[in-house]
Amino acid sequence: MPDDSPVASNDVVTMDKIVSLSKRRGFAFLSSEIYGGLGSSYDYGHYGVLLKNNIKAQWWRAMLQERDDVVALDSAIIQHPRTWEASGHLAGFTDPLVDCRTCKLRFRADHIDQSACGRKPSKHPGETPECDLTDARDFNLMFQTTVGPVQEEGSIVYLRPETAQGIFLNFKNYLQFSRKKPPFGIAQIGKSFRNEITTGNFIFRTREFEQMEMEFFVPPPEAGQWHQHWLSERMRWWTGLGLRPNHLRLRAHDADELSHYSSATSDVEYLFPIGWSELEGIANRGDFDLTQHATFSGQKLEYVDTATGERYVPHVIEPAAGVDRAMLAFMVDAYDEDEIEGERRTVLRLHPVLAPVKVAVLPLVRKDGQPELATEVYRDLRERFQTEYDEGGAIGRRYRRQDEIGTPWAVTIDHQSLEDRTVTLRDRDSLAQVRISIEDLGDEIENRLRHPWRSPKLGDG
Ligand code: GAP
Q1: Residue of 62, 41, 46 whose CA lies nearest to 324
Q2: Measured from the CB, is residue 428 less than 6 Å from ligand 1?
Q3: How far apart are CA 170 and CA 298, in angstroms?
Q4: Is the Cβ atom of 166 under 6 angstroms away from ligand 1?
Q5: Ligand 1 centre and the CA of 327: distance in Å?
Q6: Would the CB of 269 count as within 6 Å of ligand 1?
Q7: Nearest CA to 296 among 152, 164, 168?
Q8: In the chain, is it the N or the C terminus that has fewer CB atoms within a 10 Å radius of its CB?
Q9: What's the pTM value of the predicted model, to 2 decimals?
């Protein structure tokens, strides 16, 4: 949960600025806006889709391509309803709900500021009433629906509140068909659904969101060391993609915060404009899930070593992150404002591998053969990178448009380009422009994409 500690940063970024940029440039829109919007539901526009795709691609890369002990899964959103009995979600996936008799709003009992009467003090002009709360009651966060044409008791199913359970249900398949032996992991990215009570804060907490989860099955005595391994791996991933280390921390859960399945959890927290808040949870789930599903399904969910006869129920280490929340963290971390030649600019200093568009191709003027050559360069580059062509308006304004969506490089075609087939390559952060031959452009961008990257917001220190 977001804490109230002051944001220890001299950042210019605020949540309002991120929301406004997102809408202005098509990263994310409030869902169903023409009908007044649907609470805590967002639609992702062109650049939002590209940014989220890049985040997911980097996660898959870290899980699958850079390791040989993790495999992929894409399980169904709707599982057998017994799944949620076994997992404990039906009984225990609840938040304490209270109603306020003064402002008529509903709150999570543990998220409320009573002195301001919930979140809407302006509803009571001239007074600052205290909340007048009902007793807390448990509210289950799972969305319910029915399968088939008849609505009856047996047809009730749930939209999954986490992707993890689909992995546990498939554990046996991976042992049998993939001949996997612990330690090994199963990873998936997919939508999850929670009927959250406390919403707001843009895409930080929504009712429909994407998770990147991996269940890593290990011999029980090795659980502690694998938990440590994944804590450092996941921190390396976030910082490797440019999040500033002084805005990231690991925080171990206190005993009373632990989920029903967890014996130890640490959160990766990011310093959002709303304060330090969870970005990813890394839990030691022990053998809770496999044991529960074995009991409820009557199936044996254990690893058997056919050579030695050894058998055990593996313990599970789970790094679980949200795609939407990751997108918000990367945008917040990247957001900057500066001044170029007396003009203010907004710039997203995203890690180049995450940037929605890698390179923009801009003819200096819309005549003298420059658009034709620029189109040739654009067609060539888009074979290798997400590329944009823009010939509309003053060159300065076109740079600004690209800066705002985080495009790391811009190629400008000018009169010299037609004489010697060279172009200028402009860097979003340093603003350095180098002259380079059209033939070398693709390789140069490729090389730059491979370079380790450090947020310019960290300065030179
Ligand atoms: N399987 C474990 C699990 O689901 P969690 O801490 O509830 O753990 C993992 O969720 C991550 O999913 C969170 O760290 C967060 O990034 C993301 N997440 C959870 N609920 C979310 C919501 N309502 N909106 C957006 N992201 C959410």
Answers
A1: 41
A2: no
A3: 15
A4: no
A5: 13
A6: no
A7: 168
A8: C
A9: 0.93
